[in-house]
Design goal:
The protein is mainly α and 284 residues long. The chain contains twelve helices and no strands. The chain has one domain. The chain is globular. It starts with 6 loop residues before the first helix and ends with a helix.
């Protein structure tokens, strides 16, 4: 009889079905990467280097779920990729990565916490963009980078931490800061990621809050770019890097699943330090 299965059988079959679905997704993305890489053989060498940066930045950042734009942006600046092209590529790749992660975490999303953050972030992102035009961007990047490195080091060195209780206005404040920081430095997830780590939540609940927030802010950023600047004629070139970002995201998320809570906090600290270092490189 196939209609009456034990709970263990149902759990096993569910896990097997999930594994098959993930295998199909990975195979499809790998095929897209292979086709795109084959087309890049005749492309300039810079395209291959940019694809490698996107893949590695996606892999590393997807372990904890943020910092893709800062890691990739620092590397692309070192490769002297045109800033406008780099921002467009990173925005498209980040949206694809965050959408994949949010889909994987959809059962853990808590809208009561997330909604105030997103609303506040949407309202303050234009403020961040306006401030960018009026303040010393190098000084800002240096101060923010130092603060983020300090908190990342604290996460790595601390033993036990008391969880911080929060209310809806605290969540909105974190989202508002994320919007301002995102408008200034393309890193909207920093403030919300730090706030979630202070709450004492497990790794699943943290990512189920700050990853949808980052996705929402990335969509707002793309909308602002489309409104303030003419559309890029070579949009297909930028989209060609998305399969590399997805392949890295799948690998990074698989590594995340194997991490315990303490290991996740360590990875979070390392990525925060990497983010701060990336901001400092912009300052100097």
């Amino acid at each position: 009889m196939t209609f009456f299965r034990s709970p263990v059988q149902r759990l096993w079959l569910g896990a097997l079905g999930a594994a098959r679905a993930n295998g199909v997704t990975l195979a499809m993305v790998a095929a897209l990467v292979a086709v795109t890489a084959a087309r890049m053989v005749a492309a300039p060498a810079a395209d291959g280097a940019e694809a490698a940066v996107v893949l590695l930045a996606a892999l590393v950042s997807s372990i904890a779920g943020f910092a893709f734009a800062i890691i990739a942006g620092s590397a692309l600046a070192w490769l002297q990729i045109d800033p406008v092209q780099a921002v467009t590529t990173m925005a498209l790749c980040s949206i694809a990565m965050q959408a994949y992660a949010v889909w994987q975490l959809r059962a853990s999303i808590r809208w009561r916490v997330l909604v105030p953050m997103v609303v506040a972030g949407v309202l303050t992102t234009p403020l961040g963009v306006a401030l960018l035009m009026r303040i010393d961007a190098r000084l800002y990047a240096a101060v923010l980078g130092a603060l983020v490195i300090g908190y990342g080091a604290y996460l790595l060195l601390r033993r036990e931490a008391r969880a911080v209780r929060g209310m809806a206005w605290h969540d909105a404040l974190a989202g508002g800061l994320g919007g301002v920081i995102g408008g200034l430095s393309s890193a909207p997830g920093l403030a919300v990621t730090i706030w979630c780590s202070m709450r004492g939540w497990d790794k699943e609940r943290q990512r189920a809050v700050y990853q949808p927030f980052i996705l929402a802010m990335q969509l707002v950023t793309v909308a602002c770019l489309a409104w303030s600047a003419p559309p890029q004629a070579d949009v297909w070139r930028h989209a060609s890097f998305v399969p590399f970002a997805l392949l890295g995201a799948i690998g990074g998320f698989a590594l995340y699943r194997r991490l315990g809570t303490r290991q996740f906090h360590a990875a979070l600290g390392v990525l925060l330090i990497a983010s701060g270092t990336g901001l400092l490189t912009r300052a100097y």
